[in-house]
Amino acid sequence: MKTKSGGLRKTLPLLLLAAPGLLYFLINNYLPMAGIFIAFKDVNYAKGIFGSDWVGFDNFKFLFQTSDAWIMTRNTLLYNLAFIVLGTMLSILIAILMSELLKSLWSKLFQSGLVLPNLISMVVLSYIVFAFLNADSGFINNSILKPLGIPEINWYSEAKYWPYLLVFIQLWKTAGYGSIVYIAFISGIDKSIYEAAKIDGAGKLKQIRMITLPLLKPTIIILTLMSIGRIFNSDFGLFYQVPMNAGALYSTTQTIDTYVYRALMQVNDIGMSAAAGLYQSVVGFILVMAANAIVKKVNPENALF
Amino acid sequence: MKTKRLWGSLLSLVLCGSLLAGCGTESSSSSAQEGNGSQKVDKVVFAMPSFNRIPDDISKVTAAINAITVPKIGVEVDFRLYGPADYAQKVNLALQSGEQMDVFTTLGQFTNYASKNQLYPLEELLPQYGKELTQILEKDFGPNLLEATTMDGHIYGVPVNKGMSLPTNIVYNADMLKESGLTADQMTSLDDLPAVFEAVKQKHPDVIPFGPVNVNPSDTNLVLALKGMHKIDFLSDTTGIGVVVGNDGKVQNFYDTDAFKQGTKMMRNWFEQGFLEKDAATTSISFSDTIASGRGFSFLGGYSGMEAAKALSAQTGKNLEMKRLVPYYFDTGAVNLVSWMVSSTTKVPEGSVKFLNMLYTDQQLINTILYGIEGEDYVKVDEHHVKFPDGMDASTVPYTAMLSTGIVGSESLQYQLEGVNWSDVELKLKENKETERSPYFGFIFDPSEVKTQMSAVTNVVNQFLPALVTGVLDPDVTIPQFVKALNDAGASDIIASKQKQLDEWIAQQKK
Amino acid sequence: MIQTKGERAFHVFSIVAMVMFTLLAFLPFMLIIMASFTEESSLIRNGYSFFPEKMSVDAYVYMWSSASTFVRAYGVSFLVTALGTALGLLITSMLAYPMSRQDFKYRNVLAFIVFFTMLFSGGIVPSYILWTKYFQIKDTLAALIIPNLLTNGFYVLLIRNFYKNNVPVELIESAQIDGASELRIFYRMMLPLSVPVLATVGLFMGLAYWNDWINALYFITKPQYYGIQNMLIRLMNNIQFLKSGQASSMLGANAADLPSTAVRMAMAIIGILPILVVFPFLQKYLTKGIIVGAVKG
C-alpha cells in the first residue's frame, strides 16, 4: 500500500492539520528572531537599528570581564540542577500520592493546594518571606529561635543560608504545579495493568517501581530535556525580589539574569541585553543537543527529536 | 461533525473579531504634516508621565490643549499620558521601533539618551522658536541653565524649570521631639543628631529614631548630605565612580574619599547605638510609612523650599517638621535629572520646539496639562491657587496630573493647590540663583567607551552601597572590599575616561 | 475490594503527606489574607501575623473606589483567557498529533522547529515592530491573545508526548482500516482521548493568560483593555516608584498618600481569587482516565 501517491495522501492531511500551529510559530517566533543581530550592533538611534555599526562580540564582554561572571554562572547552573533533580523527584512523589487519593473526599482540597503556591507572584511572596525572615519582627527569629534560646540570625545579611532557602521556596512554589502533568499522565495509564500486578502479588511500592515509573519515563525525559534547554536562565523574581535585592547576598543569589538587569539599569543598552539573551540561548541549545544525543543513543524513541 | 462546526465557527469568529478590532483603531504612526485645508498643522506626539490616576479618556483635555496650541503655533498635540511604571518602557519601545515620539522626558538617564544619539540637537532651533523659553529659564534659574544639557556644543534637552536646590533636611516628628524635652535649635548639623536620637529613644523605647526614606534600594540620603557638605560633583552620573571634590579638577573614586569614610563611619555609629533598625539595608518599607505607623521618628530628605513638611505631615498623619542641615551643591546631574527632549528621529523638529517653548511659557497650557479643565477638574481660588471641585479629590476628579508639577513646565507659572504658600515657591526659585554651583557645572560625561565597565560597576555599587549608607556593615572592613571590587570591575578605566573628557571640557571653557 | 495491609499503610501515608503539603501551600496564602485585613500601622509595627493586633477593611475600601475598573478588568481577563485557551488548545493539539505519528516523516523536523523556539528569541523590539506595524493589533483584544501566549514549544511537545505514549497505535490503525480520514481520527478519537493532557495544558495556558501583564504593557494604551493582573502590577509599581528615591527628588514631598502594604496584599488576593473559584470545576477533567476498551474488543 506504500505507493508514492499513498505516501503523499498520508502526509498531506497531517501537514494540513499541523499548518496553523506551524504558521503561528513562523510568525510569532521565527520572524522576530531576526532581531538577534542586535546583539552584534552598537545601536545608534540617529542611524537607526539597521544603520548602526557592527561591533562583533563587544556587547558580550560585560558578561565575562568581571569577577562576578564566574559566580553568576555557577549560581545559575547549580540552582537549576537542584531545581531539576529535586523538583522532578518531588513532583513525581506528589503525583503518585495524589493518584492514590483521587477518590478520597479531600482530593479537591489537595488539588487546590497544588495550584495555589504557583499563583502567588514572586513580589508578594517576597513580602511573605520577609515576614518570616526579617531580623526585628520576623516569625522565625521571634517565634522559633528566641523561645529555643538560639541567637537571632540576620537572614538578609548572611549569604550562606540562601541556597537552601531559595531551593525550598522554589520547590514550594513549583512542585505542586509540576506534579499536575504527572498526575494527568498517570491517570492515562490503564488501570487493568495495576489489577494484574496486584493479582500477581505485587505490593504498592513494587507497583510503583515496575509500572508507574517506567511508564512515566518518556514524560520525565522530555520535561528534563526541556529544562536543560533553559539551564542558563533563571526566574528573575526568585533571585531578585525574594532576597530583597540585598547586596550582602549577591554571592549566592546573583544569577545571569539578575546581573544583566542590574548592569543595564545604568547603561540601558539594547545591544548588550540582546547579547545576554543570545548567550543564554546558545549555551542552553548546545547542552540540549548534547543531552538529546545521549538520550537518542540509549532510548531512541524518547528523544526530543 | 457538530464539534467540528462548532470549532470552525468559533475560530472564524475570533479571527473576524480581531481583524475588525484591528481595523477600527487608529494607526499610531502618522505622517508629520496633516493638511488642514490651507493651514499647515504639525502633529507632535507628546508623552508625559503622570503619578495620579490615569483616566480612561483624556480626549477632553487633549482638545483643550489643542485649542491653545493650534491657533497660537500651528501644532496639533497627540497627548499621551503614562504611569511611571510604564513610561520609560513605552517611550523606549516607540523610539526603538521607529514609531512617532517627539517630545518626552528622561526621568533620569539623560546622558544615556544623549550618548546614543536618541536626541535632536536644539541649539539652532531654540533661538528661532524658543526665545521665550530661554528668557524664562534665565529669569527663574539664572544664566546658563542649558549648559547642563549641552554635550559637544549641542543642546539636547531642556531641564524642567523649577526650584532645583534640594538641601538636606532632617524631617522629624515634632511631638516626639517636644516630649523628649528638646527643641529644633539643638539640631544644627548632622553631628547634633545622635544626642537627639538618644533622648527620643529614652522617652520612647519602642520607637526607631532614624531610617531610610527611600527603599528599593535603601537610601538614607547620606550621600546627598555628603555631596552638599564637601562640595562633591558627581560628574553627571550617579554611580559615584569619578567625582571631583571641590575644585581641584582631580577625578577620583567617591567611595575611596575621606568624605565617604567619615560619613559611613558616622552612620555605622548610629546603627551600633541602635538608632536604625537591623533590616535598614533591605527593608521595603519606607521610613515615612514607619513614621506614619507611629514607630519612627525621623529621616533625612532633600527638599526644596521650606514647606515640604506640611505635605509630609498630611501624608503621614503625624505632626512633622523639618530643619535644614546641609546646603545643596549644584552639579550637572542635579539639574538635568528631569529634562524634556526631542527625539532624533522626529519629523517635526520645528513644531516640537515650538511646542516645547509653549510648555515652559504659556500659563494656560501648563495648567491645562496639570489640572485639566477649569470648572470640571479644578476650581480657581485666587491668582496662584486652585482646588478640586466640591466633593471631589485627586482620585475622583475626571482628570488631574497635579503630582507632575515637579516634572513639567515652569514652576513660576504653575497653579498650586490651595494651602501651598506662594512665597515658598518664590523662595525656591530665588535659591536657584543662590545655591553654589560646581565649577564643572555643564560637564556631561559620555560613557560609550566604557560601557562594559559601567555595567560591571553598577552591580558592585548595588551590592555594597545600601548596607554602607545604613550603617549595617562596618565601613572599616567593608570599604576596602568595596573599592577593590570596584577596581576589579574597571573603575579605574572609567575614572581615566572621565578625567580625559573633563580636561578637554575645561580647556574648551577657557577659550 | 480487599485492601492489603500494605495498601492501607500506603493510603494512610498518602493522606498524611498530602495534608502536610496542602497546609504548607495554604499557610502563606492565609497570611496574605490576614495581612490584607490588617490595619496599616499595625502591619508596619508588628509585621505580618495570623493574629493581627488591629484589623481593618481599609485596603478593600480603598480598592472599592475603583471597583468598576476592577470589574471591567476581570471581564477582559476572563474573555482573553477563555478565547486564548480555547484557540491555543486547538492549534497546539492539531500540531501535536501529526508529530506523534511514527509514520509521519516530518515529525522530527517539526519537533526541532518547535523546540528551537523555546530557546531562541529575537527580543521584544522585533516582536513589537512585527505586531504593531505589520499586523496593527495595538489596542485590540487580539494583542492580548496572540503574541507569545497562544502556544509554545512546551505545550506542543507535552501533548505530542501524550499522544505518542498513552494512545495505543492499534486504535489509530483500526480507525484507518475503517476508512476514517486523518481529520476525523483527530476530532473523533484523539481529542476525546486526550482530555487529561488537554485539561493540564489548558490549565497552564489559562493561568499564563490570566497572569500575563506584559502584553498589555507593550501593546495597550487604552485602559479599557487592561486585564486584572496588568492593572494590579501597574498599581503596585506606581506605589513602589512613588516610594523610591527618584520620585522624591522629582516630585518633592508631594508623593500621594497611599495605604501601601495592606493594599498590596489585598491586590494579590483579588488577582488569585477567581482562579481558586474556577479551579475545582476543572479538576475532574485533569484526572479522567482514557477509555482503552475499544482495543480490547
TrEMBL record, chain C:
User: Cellular location of this protein?
Assistant: Cell membrane
Q: Give the record's membrane topology.
A: Multi-pass membrane protein
Q: Which UniProt keywords apply?
A: Cell membrane, Membrane, Transmembrane, Transmembrane helix, Transport
What is any Pfam family matched here? Answer: BPD_transp_1
Which domain of life, per UniProt?
Bacteria
Tell me if Transport is a UniProt keyword of this record: yes
Domain ABC transmembrane type-1 span(s) in chain numbering: 74-282
Q: Does the keyword Transport apply?
A: yes
Output the Gene Ontology cellular-component terms. plasma membrane
The UniProt entry, under InterPro entries, shows: MetI-like, MetI-like_sf
Which GO BP terms sit in this record? transmembrane transport
TM spans (from-to): 12-37, 73-97, 109-129, 141-158, 190-210, 262-282
Q: What is its main location?
A: membrane
Which PANTHER family does the UniProt record give?
A: ABC TRANSPORTER PERMEASE PROTEIN MG189-RELATED-RELATED (PTHR43744), POLYGALACTURONAN_RHAMNOGALACTURONAN TRANSPORT SYSTEM PERMEASE PROTEIN YTCP (PTHR43744:SF9)
Q: Write out the similarity annotation.
A: Belongs to the binding-protein-dependent transport system permease family.
The name this protein carries in UniProt is Putative aldouronate transport system permease protein
Native species of this protein?
A: Paenibacillus polysaccharolyticus
